[in-house]
Structure to design on (252 residues):
């Protein structure tokens, strides 16, 4: 399967490679393979291959802690600083803004929309001239705008913050809100969707939440999830499953 180059930085092989690099180089501290995979929603096998390449070429340093491999950017590699700057400009908005917003009060939901979100989800086009930040809730406006200004310096392009009232966002009838909700959104913070769950036989099984795009994944980026061998015993096991319905909480 052919993997498309990411619209945010076509110099890279894939969107997954860019997101792994961005997480490693833009998030402070050491990171395990599992941490990176969980944070980026990329299969561990894919993360492992990319980290192996980065380690072998001296872009990251690695140390063992038990069975975990912990990696961090190599400060002695002369490419580290310019690579970090390039990743901040291209893949960095989500990482930088998510970290900055974490300490801001009154944020029910935050996401990037507009041209950067479109490029991040694979839509072709020119490099985004600015970053459109949506914040739902009642954050301190002065603090939010200062945060956006600081992020603009790091990302080397303006960050335009727009605040929307929680009730207006959930209603979805405002023309601006309706338009934004229908287009790509890169979710940064989500404290809104704490909906009541569905239970089966008294056990939690699902949550009802408003349908909203969090992050697109192309089929080539999740191909590793389906690349394993098939289960040769599946049909045999399926035939052993009874078709009768019963309440699992009933012990009689």
């Amino acid at each position: 399967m052919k993997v498309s180059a990411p619209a945010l930085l076509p110099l890279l092989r894939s969107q997954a490679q860019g997101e792994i690099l961005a997480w490693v180089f833009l998030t402070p501290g050491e990171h395990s393979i599992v941490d990176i995979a969980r944070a980026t929603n990329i299969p561990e096998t894919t993360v492992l291959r990319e980290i192996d390449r980065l380690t072998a070429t001296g872009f990251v340093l690695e140390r063992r802690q038990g069975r975990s491999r912990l990696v961090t950017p190599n400060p002695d590699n002369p490419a580290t600083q310019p690579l970090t700057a390039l990743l901040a400009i291209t893949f960095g908005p989500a990482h930088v803004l998510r970290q900055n917003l974490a300490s801001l009060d009154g944020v029910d939901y935050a996401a990037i929309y507009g041209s950067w979100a479109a490029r991040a989800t694979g839509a072709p086009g020119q490099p985004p001239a600015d970053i459109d930040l949506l914040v739902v809730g009642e954050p301190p406006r002065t603090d939010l705008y200062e945060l956006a200004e600081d992020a603009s310096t790091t990302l080397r392009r303006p960050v335009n913050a727009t605040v929307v009232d929680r009730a207006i966002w959930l209603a979805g009838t405002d023309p601006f809100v309706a338009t934004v909700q229908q287009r790509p959104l890169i979710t940064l913070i989500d404290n809104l969707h704490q909906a009541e769950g569905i239970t089966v036989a008294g056990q939690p099984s699902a949550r009802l939440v408003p349908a909203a795009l969090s992050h697109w994944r192309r089929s080539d980026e999740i191909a590793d999830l389906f690349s394993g061998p098939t289960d040769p015993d599946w049909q045999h096991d399926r035939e052993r499953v009874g078709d009768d319905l019963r309440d699992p909480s009933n012990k009689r």
